[in-house]
Every structure is written in C-alpha cells, then in structure tokens.
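Hello again, I could really use a second opinion on something today. I've been puzzling over a protein and I'd love to understand its fold better. I'm sending you its amino acid sequence along with the backbone structure tokens. It would help a lot if you went through both lines with me. I've dropped the whole record in just underneath, so have a look.
***
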Amino acid sequence: MCRWLAYSGSPILLEELLYKPAHSLIDQSMHSRLGVETTNGDGFGVGWYGSEGLAPAVFREVGPAWSDRNLREMAGHVASPLFLAHIRASTGTAVQQTNCHPFRHGSWLWVHNGAIRDFSQIKRELVLAVDPSLYPAMEGSTDSEVMFFLALTFGLDGDPHAAVEQMVGFVEAAAAGHGIANPLQMTIGASNGSAVWAFRYSSEGRSRSLFYSTKMQTMRQLYPDNPVFQTVSEDTRLIVSEPLGDLPGAWNEVPESSYGVVHQGDDELHPFRPRLP
C-alpha cells in the first residue's frame, strides 16, 4: 500500500515533516511500522499551496523518496501552510510519474492509501462513469486516480464528503455486479486549498491506519519545553497514515468508517456511510 500525510497551519518548510521527525515520511518510506509493506519505494510526490487563488504545485518522481536529492533540496526551501505528501507502494499498476500521488485537478489535491480489489475487472465500468468533460485530464492507470475523478464527477467541488460517499457506493455496487466481495480499502486525503478532508473506510470494516494530531493548545500544555509546539499557530493540524513520533498524547486514531474535516482551526469528525449516486 502507501503512506501519506496532510498538514494545515502555520507555514513551515516541507522538510520539517518529510525529514526531521524521528519517524518522518522519509523514514516511513524505508521502515513503515503500520503499513502492509515495510518499504514504500515505488515513487513519491508532494503537493502544496502557496499564493492564495493559485492552483497547487505538485512535484512527483518514480524513484524512492529516501534517495531523491531534488526532493531533499526542495524540502529545505519550500514553505507552505497546507500541503499533502505521499510515498507509494504499487498494488500492480505501473511505476510511472502519472501514477504517483498527489493527483491534482483545478484547486484539488488527492492522495490515497489502499486499493480496489480486482480493479481490472471493473475498471472499464468505473472509467466510463467519469464525466466526459473530466476524462481528458486523467493521465495515469491507477485505481486511486479513477476514484478521484469519480468523486469529482459526483460533486467534490460542492459537497466533498457526499461526493466521496457516492464514489464509494458506486465502486461497491459495480464490484457486487461482478461478484467481487469487500472490494474497497481506503484512506484518502483531499484538499481544495481552504480545508482538508480525510476519510478512513474499507468494505470489510478493517481499514488501514490513519491518525490526526492533538490540538496544539493541549500539546503546549503537555510539552511546554518543545519549541515547535510554541511557535506554530493554534489551528495547526496533521493527518498521517502513521504517527511521526512516539510522543504520548500527540496522536489520535481516526475511527473506523469515519471522515474528518480541518478548516480554519475547527476539527470535525463524522461517520462515513457509502451511498449510491
């Protein structure tokens, strides 16, 4: 599978999360503790928001993140208040740049950990359901990108959580028509530049790991001598496939079949219920 993180808060250098923590995303690319695979070396990517009103920037490569000198150089110079990063372990599709996350369309970034079971059997049905106006923007061959464009088709711009619920419902219905049991495994991070949505769900009710950070006010009380917690803003939040360190009280597991929203310092957590579009 894969590992990913989403950050929202005070502008920070990308290296603060990609490289510096004890169990940073780069460390997870070699030594994942909670993933299906220990190594995630089939490509990587990072997407970040800069000036307000501009589309997010994306940097993606096919090699392993731990040895990419360009990523290391860039991460020490690019700062952002909102970014998503992803390290990939392919579930069968080609290792190529267009299959690396984050996927981008307009103001949206999308990262995914998981898979659609027997994707090749239902791929044609799923792709044909993508809005014709969106289809030319699809560049890769992964189930993750198809899920993204189905969510866009079902109204991601207007109602993100409803669009993802409908996407999942559509995938599960298509799989049922082909006799595929428990077809979907997913944690998803998505952002339009103003908020971050995170989803944890699987058809069998045994989803991949996903965590969110404790509110910064609490972290300052728990660790008054930590300089990082003292300098970032109150509304700083992190969502991660697995914790970046072992600080007690710093991380909370996203419940099974749930989705969360981070927007201007407010946290929301709700049940996730697939439904047909």
User: Anything to note?
Assistant: The chain has eight helices and 13 strands. The first helix runs from residue 15 to 18.
